[in-house]
Amino acid sequence: MPQFNPGQSKNAVVPVTVQPSGLSCEIEVFLGPNDTTKVATSGLLPFTSTGSQQGIVAPITMPSASGTYHVFIDVYSGDFLIAAYQAIEDVVIAPVGVAEFTYVSSVRHAGTILYPGDLGNGIYDKIQVDIKNTGTGAGICHPHGFMRFVLYDRTIISEGSYGWYLYENPNYFPGGYSPKYFNKPNPAPTFDLEPGQVATFEWHLALAESFRNVYTWAESEAGKTEELRLR
Amino acid sequence: MERIQVQMEDPVFAPGVIKTAKVPIDVDPSGLSCEIEVFLGPNASTKTATSGLKSFISTGLLQIVNAAITMPAVAGASYHVYIDLYVEGMYLAGYQATEDVIIPSGSIGPITWV
Fold it and tell me: Pairing between strand A24-32 and A67-77?
């Protein structure tokens, strides 16, 4: 049984045979609880019969309400109905799940990583937080890793999102390359999470000796996590 | 006798429906006992569907004669339309319509969604 999303645009390809050839015909494919209630329809689509089977493409926007719908096909020639069919298989419109992203861990310092030759002698702090899709549908999460660092004189010299890795639990498999320099943030990540799926979001920070009061946190649709003080 | 072509609209009908052909006829002089037969078929000697003989009295003017026909049950074909006119029992003229009657058929195979 074909299953589609509410409002999804699909094409029904209908093999139609109308005889004799050369007739002006119309076809309508529609969905509904019965053949007199058209919840979604292709409208009347004109075609000229060839006398043999021809594939007619009928675009339909699926109903917005979830449920099971019968599929009806009417073929007209002249002013009358020459074929009225109902598909054996109904179309199912699945309810829309809503993704909701929640942090399921604190922001944590997960050690260091070495980038030889980079700023801070190539030593970067690895910051991680786990985020989970606690909603009922798949969705795209847009997490951001942030840091704020202050000089001795308490001047905030930078605050913003920085390079990150996305690791999928449980294997912590690197999903990308972090920036070589923390003033060149990676583009904002996007990744799909199925309901219940957990991902570890990681970003890397290089800390200079002159930095003090360094904090980091993460943000996504779920909001801002607590800050983690590194220095 | 060679048949005469007569104009007709291009009709498409459902199989088995009853339709009435309205035939404009002018027979002179008036007062003659006439009959008309409208029939469908692949040729003039094969009557797939017919109105039978419809009697009327000539008026000497153009008159409309109704000829009801049950359309052929076999769909997916076109049929020639013939009109035979008899006056006082004598075959006077045979006509064939310029357009055929079409009885379309339609069938649908399995739908695929793309």
Answer: antiparallel
